[in-house]
Amino acid sequence: MGFWKDKRVVVTGGGGFLGRVVVEQLRKKGCKHITAPRSAQFDLRKSSAIHKLFTQARPDMVIHLAAVVGGIGANRENPGKFFYDNLIMGVELMELARRMGIAKFVAIGTICAYPKFCPVPFKENNIWDGYPEETNAPYGLAKKMLLVQSQAYRQQYGFNSIYLLPVNLYGPGDNFSWGTSHVIPALIRKCIEAKAQGHKHITVWGTGRATREFLYVDDAARGIIMAAEKYNNSDPVNLGAGFEISIKKLVNLIVKLTKFKGDIVWDTSKPDGQPRRCLDTTRARKEFGFKAKVPFEMGLKKTIDWYERNPI
Model-level pTM? Predict the structure, then answer.
């Protein structure tokens, strides 16, 4: 509680899915000076807007969560936008933070930064061992440059920045929009709408053989805040739940929890994305004591309950 009492914090993306939870948890920890800029007021791709933001907010710390994101389809349709917007936001924010003397910068990367074929579980030392999965490589590489910038700025300027690699997130308040949602909210919406409309099947992309790991949003926010408090090194750190589930098993679980009684049709003309995803979370436990708490099925139930109360 004492750590955050007098801290002034800018949380980019503070109005988003993860950002709202980070802001809420910071407030519970006694942080009274939180600025969560909105894109309509501050275009974080422009240094002039960032300078204005930092001048007004006078932060001691920046937690950079803002990102232009989407599922496989959105990544395939917008590779240039996803690369440019994510790269330029990170580069400009960290550069202005350094120049304006901000004490700490917390950069949030992505599991999409890892090579397409990476030993499982992914260890931080493997991050440079190959090219990312093609459908999300522009996004993954743009976010990966924050790691390069963080390490270069610490080396040359002594700038205190850290870089975290969260696995796929899910939870209440997620993005359920067609076209930009990730796999869990997309599947939940498909099942609930199909059940409501009496459809006899749902269609799912790929073969179902790919695997993923998922971290509940409250756990992710807690991990980010723990790192902000305790971690001061530019070596990357994974944030995950430490389990792996196939997309086929995930679909079957969501079908069961939503009580959808129809069939599952696999559209194998669509890509699976990265073959496997599962993180080694040893470094997070060692460096700042983070371990995920929310069991996966419990988190899914909470997410489904939230969407049933807040349908699109």
Answer: 0.94
- Nearest Cα neighbor of 86 from 109, 61, 62 is 109
- pLDDT tens track for 242-270: 999 999 999 999 999 999 999 999 999 99
Contact 6, 59 (CB under 8 A): no
Picking from 228, 236, 238, the residue whose alpha carbon sits closest to that of residue 59 is: 228
Please name the residues in contact with 209: beta carbons below 8 A apart, sequence gap of 6 or more: 246, 247, 248, 272, 275
Active-site residues, by number, are 139
Least confident among 104-108, 169-173, 177-181, 257-261: 177-181
d(CA 226, CA 224): 5
Closest C-alpha to 187, from 250, 275, 135: 250
Which backbone phi and psi does 70 adopt, to 5 degrees?
Answer: 180, 180
For residue range 213-238, list pLDDT tens digits in order: 999 999 999 999 999 999 999 999 99
Over 90: is that where the pLDDT of 91 sits? yes
How many whole angstroms separate alpha carbon 195 and alpha carbon 259?
A: 8
What's the Cα-to-Cα distance from 130 to each of 46, 112, 125, rounded to whole Å? 31, 12, 12
